[in-house]
Amino acid sequence: MKKDFGKLAIEQAKKKKGKLEIAAKVKVENRDDLSIAYTPGVAAVSRLLAEKPELASTIKSNAVAVVSDGSAVLGLGNIGPLGALPVMEGKAVLFKEFAGIDAYPIVLDTQDPDEVIKIVKNIAPGFGGINLEDIAAPNCFYVEDRLQDIGIPVFHDDQHGTAVVVMAAVINAAKVVNKPLGKLRIVVSGAGAAGNALTHLLACRDRSGYQISKRLCVPVGDITVLDSKGAIYEGREGQGERGKGLDLYKKELARFTNKKKIAGGLKEAIQGADVFIGVSKANLLTSEMVKSMNQRPVIFAMANPVPEIDPEIAKKAGAAVVGTGRSDFPNQINNVLAFPGIFRGALDSGAKTVTTGMKLAAALALAGMVKRPTTENILPSALDKKVARTIAAAVEIEAGG
Description:
- About 40% of the residues lie in helices and about 10% in strands.
- It is of the alpha/beta class and about 400 residues long.
- α5 crosses α14.
- The protein is globular.
C-alpha cells in the first residue's frame, strides 16, 4: 500500500508540536556554569563584541535564518506565512541534519519586498547567513539583490540551489547521452525564480547577465525559456497583464537566450531540443512533444508534486534520461543536494556573499561525485551525507581563492 505522506506529516506535526527544539551547547549544572553562560560572565563577551564587532562572526558563524513571506510555497502558491512555517521548519531540519548548521525558521506577515528587505537587514546582526525561501518572482530577485551588501551570505535557495543541482544533472546527463555541453539546445519551461537562475548558470552568466570566463564555465549551446505566455525572445510584443510583454528580468533573459527567436508555445520550442527542464506546472509536456525532440533527449520534469510529464510516459516516448523532483523516481533533482554544503562552505570561509564562482564550484563538485553516470544515476542520493561535506570543501576553496 502506498504511504500517505501528507497524512503522516499532519500526524507528526500534531504529535511533535513542530519539527524543531532548542538544544543548549553548554551545560548549566552549577553556579559556575550559570555565571559563565549568563551573568556575570556574559557581560565580558557583550563588551568585547560592542568594542570589536568583527569578532561577532565567530559566535554567529553557525546560525542561519530561513526567511519566507509565504508567497510561493512549494507547489501550493501564495498561502501566507502560516502555510510557509512547516516548510521553513523542515528546511531548518535539513540544515542541521546534513551540514550541522543551526537554522531558524522566520516567516513574515508581509509581502511588500521593501518591508522584507528592511526586516532582514534588521535581524541580520544575529545570524551568519540568510536563506531566502518561497518568495515569489519577481520580488525574489529584487529582495535578494538588495541584500547583497549586508556583510553576510544571502542566498535564495529556490533560485540558486535549484540552479546548482540542475547544472550538475545536465553535466552528467550529457555524458550519458554523449553530447557536448557546448552544443546542447535546452528548453526551460518556467521563467520564475528557478527558471531564471538555472538559465543564467547554464549559460555561464552571473546574476547581472555578464558572461563568465569560459575557463571557469562551459556555456550550453542555446536555451529557450518559456513563461505562461510562450517563448521569451527579444522584442516580444504586448503590454499589461494579458499581453505578452517582458518584465525587467525576462528582458535580461531574452538578451542572451533563444538565438533563433523561436516564437509560440512549448510545442514549437521543444522541436529538435536536446534537453527539457521543467520548473513550471504538472502535465505540460506530452509524449508527442518528447518524440519531436532530438535523438536521446533528456527530460527533467521538476514540477511538484506532479511533474510536467510522468517519467514512464517520457521513457516510452524515447527519453534517454529522466529526472524529477520526487524521491520515488530515479534521478531526484533536489535542492537538499546543494544548500547545506553551500552554506557550510560559505560560513566556514567567512564569505560575505555567495558568488557565481562558488555556485559553479558546488555544481562541479556535485557532478563529480558520480564517477560513471548512467541513465538512472546522474546525481548522488539526497540522503548521502558526504554530499554536503564535498560541496562545502569546494565552496570554501573557491571563496578563499
